[in-house]
Amino acid sequence: MSEPPLVKARLRRALTFKRSHFSFPYIALCIIFVVVPLGILLGFAFIGPDDTFSFDNFAYFFTHAENIKTMLYSMGVAALTTVICLLLAYPLAMCLANSKINKSVILVLLFVLPMWVNSLLRTYALQNLLIDLFGMQRGFTAALIGLVYDFFPFMLLPLYTTLANMDKSLIEASHDLGASSIATFFKVTLPLSVPGIMSGVLMVFMPTMSTFSVTEIMGGADTYMVGSMINELINGGDWGGSAAFSLILLVLVAGTMALSNLIAKGKGTNEGMGGML
Amino acid sequence: MKKVYLLGKIFIGLMLAVMYLPIVILIVFSFSGSSGIGAWSNFDFTFDLYGNLFTNDQIMTAFGNTFLIAGISSVLATFIGTVSAVGIYYLHRPFKGIVSAINRITVVNADIVTAVAFMVFFIVCLNYLDGYVALVIAHTMICTPYVILSVMPRLSQINPNLYEAGRDLGAGPIRTLFTVMLPQLVPGIISGFVMAFTLSLDDFVITLFNKGSGLETISTLIYSSTKHGIDPTFRALSTIIFIGILAVLIGINVYSASRRKKALLVGGKA
Known about the structure:
A: 277 residues, mainly alpha, MetI-like fold, globular, B: 270 residues, 11 helices, 79% helix, 0% strand
């Protein structure tokens, strides 16, 4: 006969307000405004020109060489931008994190501040400088400079955060044990900074690949990327096509994420935006 | 060894110069009326562009729209994000992971995918909704995860028993949240708000695909203008925005740095 009170107590416990219940409205919002839109996107991608279920959008993508070419070209441009950003940002982050070279936090701040300024405005400023003042031609080089300029802070910040928080005694230990500076860099500093590199690469690669404002303003017709393709489909009212192309991008995002998680596994946490402000 | 350090300093200086050169040139030429920047010989010192700025309806409307949308959506995102961060932090095992993962979808997703997803969602579920309401919904939803991510770390620093104490002393959960928990989360809330606000100001793709016709923000106006010759008045506008944002962010950081220093001197926790 002890069951009814127990059930009652359980019911009461279930109905009592807990702190975790503060998350319920947001969970509802997420389902409505994040999960459902992605579901509809998935659905739209499979709606053909005659409003019935079809693979036409994907067939269109995969049977037209120029679509595949644009996608590969976008990936190539994004990869190149990411590598240039990494090669420039890594030494800079090392200098900024080295207390013998730089002690000022404000200096670090100055480097990441442009991240908070409208990207279109920065691109507009760069266009004024390169194309108007220096007389550079629109095209691949100008677009590449634009992309590197735009996304550089996103590479620098995670690298700096990782390098600045690194245990310096490990580097001293390596020197004490007789390793040269170069050996220490490749055997200690670089492996320890892999999480920073990964999150920097993620924060530059995907946005670069899907951008179209920078490449259109700086590159013109020379640098036609997948973003421009989606934009044109939308302007033409082809929602199914734009949904299908977005879905392909989404799969690529998920793939890149999975790959980076695999590489970063066991290499500590991925800080991402951490450290700013 | 000394030489290496000097080289490092020069490298830092060089990179900083390259990074700010376009901005500085733009600011300098905002005091010149010439239509394109073209050459230094075109430079004539005048405040014309600033004068034009305030009489240019198109730019002023876009400016107003940008700040209106950023203001509303960042306030909403900060409110939703803060309350939800508390909830998510105290969720139990499997749910906490699931909700955090959903929260990260928008953060890691390509902007253009989010933009198209919102567009088809508005078409299907909200009868071709676009304009202000659509943009406020979309911006709030892309900003909220950042607020949550910036409030969450603060929660691990505060004493969890204070909430229980508040409840034991007879305050309801909402009252305890607002009077006991939130005051301790203020630094995280502020940085979340600033992040949300600038994120909304910066947004381009999501705005472009969901604004409908007629509504322009600074981003979309610059994008459409660069295609057919941009109005030099934008130089004055850009200067004001650049300097405004730099001033606000440096101010916030200097303020929080000085507070941290003061806290250290007193011996308290920052």
